[in-house]
Amino acid sequence: MTERLGMHTLTEGRGLLFGGDYNPEQWPEKVWAEDAELMRAAGVNLVTVGVFSWARLEPEPGKHDFGWLDRVLDLMAANGIAVDLATPTASPPPWLGHRWPETLPVDEGGHRLWYGSRNQFCPSSPVYRERALAIAGALADRYAGHPALALWHVGNELGEVCHCDVSAEAFRGWLRARYGDLGTLNEAWGTTFWSQGYGDWAEVLPPRRAPYIVNPSQRLDWWRFSSDALLGHFRAERDVLRARTPDVPVTTNFMGFFKRADYWSFAAEEDVVANDWYPEPGDPLSPARTALTHDLMRGLAGGRPWLLMEQSTSAVNWRPHNLPKPPGQLRLESLQAVARGADGLCYFQWRASRFGAERFHAAMVPHAGADTRLHAEVRAHGQELRGLAALAGEPVPARVAMVFGWENWWALEERGRPSDRLNAVDQLLAYYVPFFERGVSVDVVPPSADLSSYALVVVPNLFLVADGDAEALSAYVRGGGVLVVGPFSGVVDPRGHVRTGPFPAPLREVLGASGEEWLPAPDDRPVRCRWSGGAEFTASTWTELLRAEGAEVVAEFTEGDLAGRPAVTRHRAGPGPGEGPGEGPGEGVAWYVGTMPEPAALGALAARVLADAGVEGAVPELPPGVEAVRRGEVLFLLNHGATTVRVPLQEAAEDLLTAAPAQDAVTLAPRAVAALRRLP
Ligand code: GLA
Hints:
By secondary structure, this protein is α/β, with parallel strands linked by helices.
């Protein structure tokens, strides 16, 4: 993230941003005037324009038609609505694939993917790159200095991978830069296994469909390369835009926990972090998963505000069965993002499409028009956001960090592992939920983060760990931090090679515990365990044969071969100067969890580690279903549950949303939100 340009560039003078994707090319111009009027009435101050308009802007190679877009931007400027102008490169026109089929992506099995939908490009294709940069440059030349232009939006949801011959050559170039020579590549990929030694660079390929399990180290580098190829494309477009409009921030829209692109590396290269997020309506974990995703965005933004670029006013159309949002849900979800650091709340899309693949996707203006329940809700929400303008730029302080990295995700979820039941994002969410339920704010950070400002660091899984990152975690504990490490961590190095010796080898000393076998458990049999205090709990899926080496055994397995062996350990960093064992100031604590405890047991664990770290939730008593999070001076309480609840307060406050005073408690109906500012 750059400091100079960012969300503040957009919110200054505007307050929180509200709007959505605007696709006027799908409508006759007479509709545009009504659009502008409705936008103003709804408090819209930002629209994303042009995402899918390449064929309209450049109907033939090199021949441009900007007249219609001139009129759109002028209309927006005249109505005081800022434009997030997209480069249209996510959906090349048919002429590109028709004339240059090598720009079309090829899947793992060697099949070319055709036009007729969108996203049909090979990120490594020089022809695609040339044409994409040309249209991006033409747009920037034309609209540099236009009063509506506030933000650049590169492509859309960058996520393509391609296995074609051009990509293979680019992959080889990437590998040469990483390893230098073939000998080092062979070593890194462990090619003595299954006779995979490469004698010529020309033999090296992307992991294409093969008869059996493909080399995991080759695949790990392929993930890295594919992410870098997308990033390389993003950078190239960004640089074209920056050269022409150095004062206009540049973004691209993320997709939450999206596996193919390492967003830590993307975030470092853009001015604004933006995300598209569509919570699954039927999933009881949606509120927590959404909160976690928002916290990831704040982490990507380095703690600064971020932009919710796309959400839906009601049902999407791309799930098999698309549940609508009940009245009030739109507001609840949008305010949840505000509470977690979003300074912009935008939707896909402004006006529902009459044709095309997304005819049945909800919008801010539905097919039935503006005189509808849904549009009235949109309008009321837009107006309400104006009253929260003072929140723009406010931070969401957190004393707890959770570590999440893409390399680990890629490395962990390869075929040929002990169990495919242990997955990176599921594991992260399982550890996140008890903190969410207790109203404890969490920052999501990369494995290489500076951890010194956190009282507690949770590492739900770190299967792949670099030496330096393992050392930083150990140093964090030696410096007085509280660390929790989940199962199957510290297993491989950055090449994907297993670290030999008792595991987790590079963390063994700080954890004061080690293991010798990973032991997945039968799916239909809960694993019985007991806390040292006597209470019993169950775990599932995964166990490990552990021994304590200085750590206290906090929970043990109680049946089968593992009966009496450690399940959870806790290790003090060591006695303070001149003291016996104890927990004097400056002493760190390191926990290891060698199984997958049931949610209630993870809750008990969270309570213990929070006590070790001296961290408390935003309110002392939080009824089930209620989310509590502080942003700046404001305490947000959001009721995701199905019943009306009463939340006790410690101090008198005023609700910024209703202007009502709150004395010792607030009552929240289902889907209600309170934004409480302490009374002076
Ligand atoms: C994504 C895309 C949009 C649209 C929506 C539909 O987020 O960026 O163009 O397809 O999904 O939900």
